[in-house]
Design brief:
mainly alpha, 13 helices
Length: 282
């Protein structure tokens, strides 16, 4: 056995490389396992911070619920939808997107605070996967926003929202909202890494919150003036809203889902690439 190892051989029954070192496949598996463990620990840290910050939870949920109450009980009687059904059924997809858009701003804010306090640099100097710091913020945002969306849907049901969606359609709704959340969260990561102030870290979300108002979320696009209608019909939020609305109604989604997925995938790839470049520069 000694002679075999001296000449670079493998011990009998071993799966490792020369001198008993693990094979590249084993090393890769261990690296991935350690990275996942790092992400799990850091995600738990971020989630605990959210649970201790009641104002964050309240603000994220109360704002879209207040908008839903305003549109349904104050403005809803003056708005006619294409289907002629309940306005809250028409309205809810846009409210859910606003819920996510307002929630992801806290990802940028918390990441900026980590940078400002030196915690971000301290984590990067530790023997942990570098990407785990960013992924912890991303997964925290995904969990927190899906919980906020569930609360808003519960309030909508109490207000009269009804759906003919099948279990498969509900899975589609969750998948689309999760992808939308991931996309906006990575944009928030870019803002958190690039911001020079606390205000700058959170201000990026204002256009995202405003975008659903210039879409098919609240009124049919054909009721808008020409240039506004053109923009509303061709911006990504309209495709996402139309997809969610069709899923809730149990209707065919048509081309809207492919347009929505193409928009979200393209923006997600650009945002992830920008975040990686900013992280390396930092």
């Amino acid at each position: 056995m000694t002679a075999q190892l001296a000449h670079g051989g493998r011990p009998a029954g071993g799966g490792g490389s020369a001198l008993g070192a693990p094979s590249p496949r084993v090393q890769g598996a261990r690296t991935v396992s350690r990275a996942l463990a790092d992400v799990r620990v850091l995600t738990g840290r971020s989630l605990r911070h959210i649970l201790r910050s009641t104002d964050t939870i309240i603000t994220t949920v109360v704002t879209p619920i207040a908008l839903m109450l305003l549109f349904v009980y104050v403005l809803g009687g003056a708005i006619r939808t294409e289907s002629g059904g309940s306005y809250i059924d028409y309205l809810l997809p846009g409210i859910l997107l606003i819920t996510v858009a307002s929630g992801v701003s806290y990802t940028s804010y918390r990441l900026f605070l980590d940078r400002q306090g030196g915690i971000y640099e301290r984590f990067r100097s530790m023997p942990i996967a570098r990407s785990s710091v960013l992924w912890a913020h991303v997964l925290t945002s995904l969990v927190a926003n899906l919980v906020s969306v569930a609360v808003v849907v519960g309030v909508a049901l109490a207000m009269g929202f009804r759906t003919g969606a099948s279990p498969g359609a509900w899975c589609g709704v969750v998948a689309i909202i999760a992808l939308f959340t991931l996309t906006l969260t990575w944009i928030a990561v870019v803002a958190g890494l690039a911001a020079k102030s606390v205000d700058g870290a959170s201000a990026f979300s204002y256009p995202l919150i405003f975008l659903p108002f210039i879409s098919s979320a609240f009124v049919p696009t054909d009721s808008m003036p020409g240039p506004v209608a053109w923009f509303a019909e061709h911006q990504p939020v309209t495709a996402v809203v139309d997809t969610l609305r069709a899923l809730f109604e149990g209707q065919p989604v048509g081309d809207a889902i492919w347009i929505a997925l193409a928009w979200l995938a393209a923006v997600l790839l650009v945002a992830v690439g920008a975040a990686i470049r900013l992280a390396r520069r930092a």
